[in-house]
What we know:
It is a single chain. The protein has two domains: 4-76, Glutaredoxin (3-Layer(aba) Sandwich), CATH 3.40.30; 87-219, Glutathione S-transferase Yfyf (Class Pi), Chain A, domain 2 (Up-down Bundle), CATH 1.20.1050.10. By secondary structure, the protein is of the alpha+beta class. The protein is built from ten helices and four strands; from the N terminus they run E-H-E-H-E-E-H-H-H-H-H-H-H-H. Keywords: Transferase.
Amino acid sequence: MEEVKLLGWWMSPFSRRVELALKLKGVGYEYIEQDLANKSQLLLEYNPVHKKVPVLVHNGKTMAESLVILEYIDETWPNNPILPRNPYEKAMARFWAQFIEEKCNGGLWKIMWCKDEEERGRLVEEASHCFRTLEGELKGNKFFGGDEIGMVDIAANFIGYWLGVVQEVSGMELVTRDKFPVLCKWMDEFVEHSVVKETLPPRDKLHAEFEARLGAPSWKY
C-alpha cells in the first residue's frame, strides 16, 4: 500500500489544488488539517523551509509548493493526465500556470489588502489586463486543458471559486459577465465539474472567513 498524505488548510486554494489533482487521478490519500495560526510540529518537520501548506507526503518523501506537487502527481500517477504529453504544449501549460500564480493571483491578493484608493485603482487596471490575456487563452475551449480539466484550470481555482466570494464580500466588481464573458463561462463550467465540487470549501463558511478578514469595504471598479 502506498502512503499518501496531504497536509492542508480547508480555506487554502493551494491545498485544494492538490486535492483536486489527487481526486482526478483516483489516488487515495489521508488528509491532515492544519491550524496555520498554531503550526503543528508535523508541518514544521515536513516543510521546514516555508512552513506552509500544502505538503504532500508520498512513501516518506515530502514536497511543498502546489504547482511543484501537481507536476509530481502527474508524473507519479500518469492516468488521467493533467499536463499534455507533447513537450511544447507541456511547456506552455507550465507557462500559463505560472502566469496565473504570479500575475493573476498575485495581483488579486495585492488588491484585496491595498488600503490606498489610488493605488488600488492602478492594481485593478493591471489585473484586468491579466484577465483579458488569460481569457484569450481559452480559445473557445470548455477548459484551459481542452475538454478536460488540466493543470492550468487547477492553477486557476482561486479565480474559479474564491474570487466570486471575495467580490461578494468586498463589493469589488472586477470579473463580471459584462467585462469577461468567456472567463465567467469557464468559471461556471469549473465549479460545476463533479470532481471540482468535491474539493471546494463551503461557500457560506468561506464568505464568513473573508468577511472577518477583509471587513466590508465598497470597492467598485
